[in-house]
């Protein structure tokens, strides 16, 4: 029975980062710092505009402001530590902080998944049921949907952390990434991880695929309704949904690759490159895509200026 007792001798992990070349690290520090500041400023701009401009007090922009909060919190969870490691050249991270980072990052990822599903359902109601839309998506319904998006992932991710903490970590402690990620950390466990991997795979698959099915169903109905429009309303409908579809493709593609599709150990470097996309690029592009192609935001900015 003593062999089954859990123990953890690893007190810290070593993040190998993006590169070990010192000059490249300093160059990346400057680039990532600029990306981080632009991401935070862009999402703060969205939140402020939605708050102060009465024309943006609609369900679509209400959920968009929550998405901006998620992106801003996510980059703040991952990028400052990454910048510190690039500046100092030391990739050490404590075991406890690694678990905390995994919990917060995965929770925020889950919040974004659910928000994208809710936003797709909101667009379906607005386009396919315009007369019932104000009743079906009133302020109480908005509050219920947003609360569920924030609370549900935080509870589900507790299961993930329990699966990680129940493993034995006796070495090695090097993580071939620039942040602590659940699949990579689980590979470092000395004990049998098949049950934990099965639990994580099933829950993760449901959490990704159920909202994705809602997304595809909603946009299937939207496409059917748009094709039946005889006037120029289809242009406005496509314009409204186009930004959302671009964000969905950028977000779901990398996540499905890293967390769902089975891979061999030789794909570790490729996973790290894909992780760069959804950790650094997607949160920045979300704010750019939603504001650059949106005339309501253009008018709101012009009004403030």
Automatic annotation (TrEMBL):
PROSITE patterns reported in the protein's UniProt record: G_PROTEIN_RECEP_F1_1 (PS00237), G_PROTEIN_RECEP_F1_2 (PS50262)
Domain G-protein coupled receptors family 1 profile: from-to ranges: 42-290
Transmembrane region(s): 26-50, 62-87, 93-116, 198-222, 242-262, 274-292
A Pfam family hit: 7tm_4
Keyword Cell membrane: yes
Keywords: Cell membrane, G-protein coupled receptor, Membrane, Olfaction, Receptor, Sensory transduction, Transducer, Transmembrane, Transmembrane helix
Cellular-component GO terms for this entry: plasma membrane
Family to which the UniProt record says this protein belongs: Belongs to the G-protein coupled receptor 1 family.
UniProt protein name: Olfactory receptor
Highest classification ranks of the organism: Eukaryota, Metazoa, Chordata, Craniata, Vertebrata
